[in-house]
Amino acid sequence: MTSYINDETIEKVRESSDIVNIISEYVQLKRTGGNYVGLCPFHNEKTPSFSVSDTKQFFHCFGCGEGGDALSFIMKVENLEFPEAVKFLANKLGIAIEETSSKNQKVIDEKNKAYEINKETARFFFGNLTKTEVGLNYLYNRKINNKIIKQFGLGYSLNKWDDLYKYLKFRGYKEPDIEKLGLIGKKSNNDGYYDKFRNRIMFPIIDTRGRVIGFGGRVLDNSMPKYLNSQETPVFNKGEHLYGLNLVNKFSDKKRIILVEGYMDVITLFSKGIDYAVASLGTALTDRQAKLLKRYGENVYICYDSDQAGTNATNRAIEVLLKEGIDPKIISLGKYKDPDDFLKENSINEFEKIINESFNHIDYRIYINKRKYNIEEAEGKIKFTIEIAKIIKRLKSPIEKDVYIKKISKEMNISKEAIEKEVFGNTIKHVGNSNFREKPKVDDKYKRENIAPVKIILPSASLTAEIDLIKLMIFDKIYFDMIINEISLDEYTNIECKKILEIIIDLYNENETLNEDLLYKMSKEIPNISEELLHLVFEKRIKFSPEDVEQMIKDLINTIKVNKLRDKRNEVKEEIEKLENKSEMNSSEKEEFLLLCMELTKLNKELNLMRHEDGR
User: At what angle do helices 378-393 and 398-412 cross, to 10 degrees?
Assistant: First the structure.
């Protein structure tokens, strides 16, 4: 049976390949300007003429003319055919190879059908827009002209219940295929279908290969939800794509990419000549999206909304980008909410100016924390310095640490030594320009063999699990929704955690995003709440991989439920022991004894079942 590697796998290998890392295994490369150079492996030379571009993910030899991407290089250097080169790199990158046999052609056909339906839908929405004043007037009022409308393929969904459904049916498409793409839904009485997008400006989401993979729709008034996005489908996962990247790939010189929040931000910037903006499709930036940014842009700028939700999203995006090896710049919009808002009152030259004045990620956090704390007062100054010390502590470069310690010392009029203690701890010792921790001397009477052992007080496994679940819920509403559906408030054992969770539920009920500062302030007002718990919840960050978070949530919930069952079982055992220790039991006590024994058996079964499901 013939088989071949599917397009998605090939694309994933291409996008995950770092050409500099791959070629460095064969050629000694040296950074020169924006590129890397070395001796060509394909012909004999003494002067390096082999160039590798990190930003373009491309190599070229000016001596022999060989060139291409990472796959081309592997094919040439390892003498492999294309499929073998894909497998070779996939194995290096830990990517599972998905081969498609003729037997599985049905899957390929289904995806091609999805692309076809989406394309036809985009054409239909575009046609609606050109024939409808209400949609066009909305865009014209936002200074979006016909050229931009055509380039982005913007459209309009009429305020009718089954307009698209009837059109696609007329074109010969079947209901299950259309419904699978989230374009229509079944009526509650199962009597027909209705359009999911109605009375909205429509934004086709197009991948870098020019295929329509999904849609976003914006209302024309103040009704909610303001934006409606395609559900996840066989051809669309919003965490794997960036809106507008297809046009950046086509028009931009790829030296920079600006990451914004919304469709209109991308379109407004493009209409003003900024053809290198992309949007993260209303989701927290993912590792996959960070890889795309790294592939298509040399310099990445974050320009999210300036409200608290945007600030929180910016901080999260910084972490994701740093993990991917991208050192982002952050654009400050000042009093303006978003780029669209800024450009209503300012010229494109003014926007270029704030791009050039953008912060690095450390200066941005300093800027944000100065706004957060009143540094004119002693308490605010202390809190600000402690917060920045935590950021400095995480820097890898000793020089960077030294620069920012001096900067904060000067700005806050706090001694350099005090900030160093906050960054490095109390055991810092100076030798020349380097810092290291000095091992503290231990008095003989305090040595381990001379002191009685004490019980170390640590959070229980159940409490740790409850705190970690709360941290995940704070991090993203997606995780909040996952958790809240799997474990009820009553199943939490710690009263303080329950109180914090109640506040989180209330805040998410009011808004799609969580104001962490407000949550912290409200949590501090919980009567008798311990500072230790607040520290564990708000100061210590949870480490997790987005790919493994679902399993992690299951494990944490299982820990809580198992511990609760164990506590209940211990209570029942104690009650049984009390009755057993009696010299004689009356009839009611005998009945209670039997009921307790039955309950103990039931609890043991539940615990064994949960251990079995957990694989323990």
Answer: 170
* Short-list 446, 384, 451, CA closest to 413: 384
Q: What is the dihedral of CA 593, 597, 598, 600, to 10 degrees?
A: 140
pLDDT of residue 432: 35
Which of 299, 270, 265, 295 lies closest to 281, judged by CA? Answer: 265
Predicted pLDDT at 431: 34
Q: Distance between CA atoms of 457 and 533, rounded to whole angstroms?
A: 13
Which pLDDT value is given to residue 225?
A: 84
Query: What whole-number distance in Å separates Cα of residue 34 and Cα of residue 42?
Result: 23
If we measure between CA atoms, which residue out of 176, 161, 157, 156 comes closest to residue 114?
176
The Cα–Cα gap between 260 and 319 comes to 16
Question: What's the pLDDT tens digit per position in 328-376?
Answer: 999 999 899 999 889 989 999 999 999 999 999 999 999 999 988 988 8
Instruction: Check: CB of residue 497 under 8 Å from CB of residue 470.
Output: yes
List helix spans (H) across 324-460.
339-345, 348-356, 361-372, 378-393, 398-412, 416-424
Dist CA 203 CA 237 (whole Å): 16
In angstroms, the first-to-last Cα distance of the chain is 41
Q: pLDDT value at position 120?
A: 97
In this prediction, what percent of the chain has a pLDDT beyond 70?
A: 89
Tokens found for residue 269? 């910037």
What residues contact 56, with CB distance under 8 A and at least 6 apart? Answer: 254
**Per-residue pLDDT, 435:** 38
Tell me the two tokens of residue 279.
């949007």
Q: Please, are residues 177 and 170 in contact by the beta-carbon 8 Å criterion?
A: no
Q: Which helix (H) or strand (E) holds 422?
A: helix 416-424
**Number of helices (H), then strands (E), in the chain:** 26, 20
The C-alpha atoms of residue 380 and residue 559 are separated, in whole angstroms, by 39
- Distance, in Å, from the CA atom of 510 to the CA atom of 480, rounded to the nearest integer, reads 14
Taking every pair of C-alpha atoms in the chain, what is the biggest distance, in angstroms?
Answer: 101
Distance CA 241, CA 209 (A): 12
Listed range (90-94, 201-205, 327-331) with the worst mean pLDDT:
90-94
Give CA–CA dist 490/187, Å, rounded.
Answer: 36
Phi-psi category of 454—alpha, beta or left, where left has phi over 0 and alpha has psi -120 to 50?
beta
Question: From CA 302, how far away is CA 314, in angstroms rounded?
Answer: 7
Strands (E) across 89-221 are located at 99-101, 155-157, 184-186, 193-195, 200-206, 212-219
Q: Note whether 388 and 365 are within 8 A (CB).
A: yes
Mean pLDDT, to the nearest integer, of 573-586?
80
In percent, the amount of the chain with pLDDT more than 90 equals: 35
Residues 6+ apart with CB under 8 A from 43: 61, 63, 64
Element (H, E) at 247: helix 245-251
Strand partners, 61: 50
Query: Does residue 156 sit in helix, strand or coil?
Result: strand
